[in-house]
């Protein structure tokens, strides 16, 4: 269902560093020394900061009818969202314990910056928002500090690793493609496309069985045959007919180096590598340090169209401040 997919995309973007429902083990020099069997969770007001943020954002997009939507597993979207928030908070608490285990703390300047951010968030709330969440400024400070610390742990435990990404492996090119199911047809279309003065895009638009015609391409996305054919082209060149995954392709290179897209992909690959390494550390620590939150308070939370709260910017303010 689209709501569920939208949630996963949203949570990935605002909390990727927390590696929801993932892990971390075995980075040498990072032993796990704690063995916590029960850990106090966040208070209801602190938890409600995250609950209200996501509740309001989704209600603004899909209206309050969303809370009665039933997913494929029979769970209402309200219960699903609350379950995801609880998982998020459990993972953030685990990150806090990992920080303590590794003597990673916030500096005075970081605390000052987070206090100012907390004041900005709190001062922007309506009285209805404050009443709905039951929070005070200290609750906001706590949650911003915990979220920042979770991100800091990732950086600190991976900063000595060689995760460099070369321009070659991150390189992104722009191509146009024409694909058909028959080799003879592909050969005929190649003759047309390779003719002087031909309009490759127009021929592809008319005959290609695969869209889009024009696209950006990075390494590791297509199979080796397609990738090699595309990356061996200079701008303006056309490949011979190649076979890839049951189709016959002709590829035209529009740009053999997209500088902006390559820089973005380099950042993406670096982040993926860092998170993959961190997952190993986190998984082991999570296994050795059980987090048990009481479910009692979650049973008291219900969503109503009459709830007087509209705040949605807890994560947005953080992203603006630190990214």
Automatic annotation (TrEMBL):
GO terms for molecular function: peptidyl-prolyl cis-trans isomerase activity. Coiled coil: none annotated. Its EC number is 5.2.1.8. It catalyses: [protein]-peptidylproline (omega=180) = [protein]-peptidylproline (omega=0). Keywords: Isomerase, Rotamase, Signal. PANTHER family: FOLDASE PROTEIN PRSA (PTHR47245:SF1), PEPTIDYLPROLYL ISOMERASE (PTHR47245). This is peptidylprolyl isomerase. It comes from Hungatella hathewayi WAL-18680.
């Amino acid at each position: 269902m689209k709501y569920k997919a939208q949630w996963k995309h949203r949570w990935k973007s605002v909390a990727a560093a927390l590696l929801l429902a993932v892990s971390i083990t075995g980075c040498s020099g990072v032993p796990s020394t704690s063995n916590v069997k029960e850990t106090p969770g966040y208070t209801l007001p602190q938890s409600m900061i995250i609950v209200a943020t996501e509740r309001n954002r989704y209600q603004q997009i899909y209206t309050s009818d969303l809370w009665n939507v039933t997913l494929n597993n029979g769970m209402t979207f309200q219960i699903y969202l609350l379950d995801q928030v609880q998982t998020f908070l459990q993972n953030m608490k685990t990150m806090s314990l990992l920080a303590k285990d590794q003597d990673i703390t916030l500096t005075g300047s970081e605390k000052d910056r987070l206090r100012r951010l907390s004041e900005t968030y709190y001062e922007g709330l309506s009285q209805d928002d404050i009443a709905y969440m039951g929070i005070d400024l200290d609750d906001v400070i706590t949650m911003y500090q915990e979220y920042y610390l979770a991100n800091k742990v990732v950086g600190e435990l991976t900063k000595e690793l060689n995760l460099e990404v070369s321009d070659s492996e991150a390189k992104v090119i722009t191509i146009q493609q024409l694909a058909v199911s028959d080799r003879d047809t592909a050969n005929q279309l190649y003759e047309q496309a390779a003719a002087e003065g031909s309009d490759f895009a127009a021929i592809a638009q008319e005959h290609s069985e695969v869209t889009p015609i024009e696209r950006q391409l990075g390494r590791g996305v297509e199979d080796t045959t397609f990738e090699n054919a595309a990356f061996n082209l200079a701008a303006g060149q056309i490949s011979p007919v190649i076979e890839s995954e049951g189709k016959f392709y002709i590829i035209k290179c529009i740009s053999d180096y997209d500088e902006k897209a390559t820089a973005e992909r380099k950042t993406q690959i670096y982040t993926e590598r860092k998170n993959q390494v961190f997952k190993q550390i986190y998984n082991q620590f999570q296994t050795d340090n059980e987090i048990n939150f009481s479910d009692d308070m979650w049973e008291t939370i219900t969503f109503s169209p009459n709830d007087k709260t509209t705040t949605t910017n807890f994560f947005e303010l953080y992203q603006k401040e630190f990214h």
